[in-house]
Amino acid sequence: MYIGIDLGTSSVKMILIDQSQNILATANSSLTVQSPQDGFSEQNPQEWINSTMECLESLKLKKPKEFLQTISIGISGHMHGATLIDKDGNVIRPCILWNDTRSHQECEEFEKQNFDVRSISGNITMPGFTAPKINWIKNNEINNFKKIFKVLLPKDYLRFVLTGEFFSEMSDASGTLWLDIKYRKWSNKLLSCSFLEEKHMPNLVEGNELTGYLKKEFKDKFNFNNNVKVVGGAGDNAAAATGMGITNKKQSFISLGTSGVFFTPTDNFLSNTGDAVHSFCHCLPDKWHLMSVMLSASNCLDWICSVTNTSIIDTLNNVTSFYNDKNSIKNSSYFLPYLSGERTPHNDPHIRGSFHSIKTTTNSTDLQYAVIEGVSFGILDGVNSILKVNNNLDNIFMVGGGSKSSFWIELLASLLNRKLSVCDQSEFSAALGVARLAMYQYEIIENKENIVSEIKINRTYEPNKDNIDLLLKRYSIWKDLYNSNNKIAQNLNF
């Protein structure tokens, strides 16, 4: 038996699978996020531990016999978070999360070096990454900075608690800005930009490699039969990709979750920092991936449903009828989906959401459509940014909450002018991905290359040729709206 742990921003999710990857039991436990100031986003790492223990108890209660036979565990986690550990193994301060934007000035400081930071890190410096968070701590909390013994990503702090070992793996470490992405090792040059050394970092492994064993206190607490192994695991999107079997070139997925992601593996290191594309290692050896990220996707839908006091189901029904009328689309309002700033392709922490071309005839359905269309334009921005350096795409899977809407997928298929596939993906795909990685530690398994197989396709969607030209014309206007808005964005945030 194998356990996958997914440490998400809002909850810990856990899955128990058997040798055939049948899901035997799942569990989840909620987490909270603190925002002490505008742009600040933090979490108490003790919550991760408490929720993990709660989920383990739940799995044991649901499948006691199978649970006790667990062989190995994989851990996934939300990326970029700065968890600071002192020499006694204690947490110095709350973890600064991926969606925290306080360090935008430190990003400029980080890149002012006598060498090309981006050519090594493969990425443009953004407030979401770990490195500028440490620079902010040095500039604003010098006493906390001086206490740093190790900087750990969220899942790697959870690993430390469970095993007593300091390890990370390539996919998650890629999001720190301290990894030499091409050569899959810590870069002393990049670490020096944050006034750190390699001794402050955990050891590096691949996602399917052993990092230690569950501590005796936890083995005894849950009465495991085996000395349970813990593998490297993966960052959240790489884990989800592994859960869907997306590890090879020509495969890709679009996630319409809280954020919007386009993810595609590559056989070697590629980069497009000019469009703020993320270039990361994948969680299996000798694999990399490109990823575009928009910060606000399905949460824009949640927001407009709240504002218009309409359920998500009713909203999607409304916009489906709206979309079937070309005249309605042609005269619709426009929406910039930048409720929290944006990453790909703008790397703009100051831009915010806005409606344009609102008329006396504009109603709630018009605004609802504009929001979904605006998010879709943002996804297209990300895809186009990646196509500049890698156009080797055949199969695109749709995942996330937005993938449940046939209308939304048809709209995206038309915008991209590509076939899109919906797979049998659940909210536990990241947990399944790292449980699959954990399976590599069972020596008896033959044909380990078959562990990460592609997930089953449920249905496919073709582009609506009648709407492509109209949508692309609106997309061109929408891009002009961003170019106009970004000139005044900083003045609006006074």
Structure at a glance:
This protein has 19 helices and 24 strands.
Counting DSSP H or I runs of 4 or more residues, the number of helices is 19
> Radius of gyration from the CA trace?
22 Å
Q: Which descriptor suits the 3D outline?
A: globular
Helix content: 25-40%
Please give the alpha-carbon distance between the first and last residues. 54 Å
Mean pLDDT: 91
In CATH's first tier, which class of the largest domain applies? Answer: Alpha Beta
Name the beta content range. Answer: 15-25%
Overall domain count: 2
Structural class: alpha/beta
Number of strands: 24
Which runs of at least 5 residues are low in confidence (pLDDT < 50)? Answer: none
CATH superfamily of the largest domain: ATPase, nucleotide binding domain
Task: Please summarize the sheet with the most strands.
Answer: 7 strands, mixed
Annotated CATH topology of the largest domain: Nucleotidyltransferase, domain 5
Which second-level CATH architecture of the largest domain applies? 2-Layer Sandwich
Describe the structure.
With about 500 residues, this protein is of the alpha/beta class. It has 2 domains: about 1-230, Nucleotidyltransferase, domain 5 (2-Layer Sandwich); about 245-494, 2-Layer Sandwich (Nucleotidyltransferase, domain 5). Strands 1, 2, 3, 5, 13, 14 and 15 form a 7-stranded mixed beta sheet that branches. Helix 12 (about 300-310) runs antiparallel to helix 15 and helix 15 packs across helix 16 (about 405-415). The longest helix is centred in the last third of the chain and has 24 residues, at about 365-385. It is globular and about 70 Å long. The termini are far apart. The model has no long low-confidence stretch (mean pLDDT about 90).
